[in-house]
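Work Package 4 report. The design task specified in the project plan requires that, given a folded chain encoded as C-alpha cells, an amino acid be chosen for each position. We show below one input record used in the internal validation round.
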C-alpha cells in the first residue's frame, strides 16, 4: 500500500456494525484508490467479487470520491471514505470532503448537469448530504447489500 492510499486511520466508534474508514489524498489517484480499497473491504466482508452489488457499490464510491476531489477539494486537505454494513442490510457509503460551503443538490429533482449524481441516484436506495463540522460535508448513499455471506463476519465489528 502506498503512502498516498492510507495516510491516517481514524479510530472507529464502538459498534457491532462492520465499518471501514480511510483518508485519501484529494487527487484522481486518491479517488481510484478509494474505489479499489472499498472493493477489497467488501470482498473481505464476504461480498462476491464479481457480483452485481459490488459493482454498484464500487460505482457509487467512485462517483462520490471523484466529486470530492473535483468539486469538494481544498489544498492540503484529503477526503474520507466510510463504509458501514447497516442492520437494515444496506451498505452505507459516506464520502467527506472539506468544502462545506459547496453542497451538491440533495434532492433527486435537483440533480442535473453531470452524470455522477444521476448514477448515484439510480443505484442508491437513498442518498443525501449533511454538514461535517466545523467546515466540511458528507455526501452519503445507501445501497442494497450483496446476500452471500454478507454483513456480519464471524469476527464482528471489523475495522480497518
Ligand atoms: N462533493 C461535492 N462538493 C461540491 N459540489 C459537488 C460535489 N459533488 C457534486 N457537486 C456539485 O454537483 C454537480 C453535479 O455532480 P455530478 O457528479 O452529477 O456531475 P459532475 O461531477 O459535474 O460531472 P460528472 O460526474 O459527469 O463528471 C457538480 O457539477 C457540482 O456542482
Ligand atoms: Mg461527478
Amino acid at each position: 500500500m502506498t503512502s498516498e492510499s492510507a495516510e491516517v486511520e481514524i479510530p472507529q466508534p464502538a459498534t457491532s456494525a462492520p465499518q471501514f474508514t480511510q483518508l485519501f489524498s484529494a487527487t484522481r489517484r486518491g479517488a481510484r484508490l478509494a474505489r479499489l480499497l472499498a472493493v477489497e473491504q467488501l470482498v473481505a466482508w464476504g461480498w462476491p467479487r464479481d457480483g452485481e452489488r459490488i459493482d454498484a457499490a464500487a460505482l457509487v464510491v467512485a462517483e462520490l470520491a471523484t466529486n470530492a476531489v473535483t468539486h469538494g477539494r481544498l489544498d492540503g486537505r484529503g477526503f474520507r471514505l466510510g463504509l458501514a454494513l447497516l442492520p437494515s442490510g444496506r451498505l452505507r457509503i459516506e464520502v467527506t470532503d472539506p468544502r462545506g460551503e459547496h453542497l451538491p443538490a440533495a434532492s433527486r429533482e435537483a440533480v442535473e448537469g453531470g452524470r455522477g449524481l444521476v448514477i448515484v441516484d439510480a443505484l442508491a436506495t437513498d442518498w443525501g448530504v449533511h454538514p461535517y463540522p466545523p467546515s466540511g460535508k458528507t455526501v452519503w448513499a445507501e445501497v442494497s447489500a450483496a446476500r452471500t455471506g454478507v454483513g456480519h463476519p464471524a469476527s464482528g465489528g471489523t475495522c480497518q
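The CA atoms of residues 23 and 138 lie 13 Å apart. Validation will be extended to a larger panel in the next phase.
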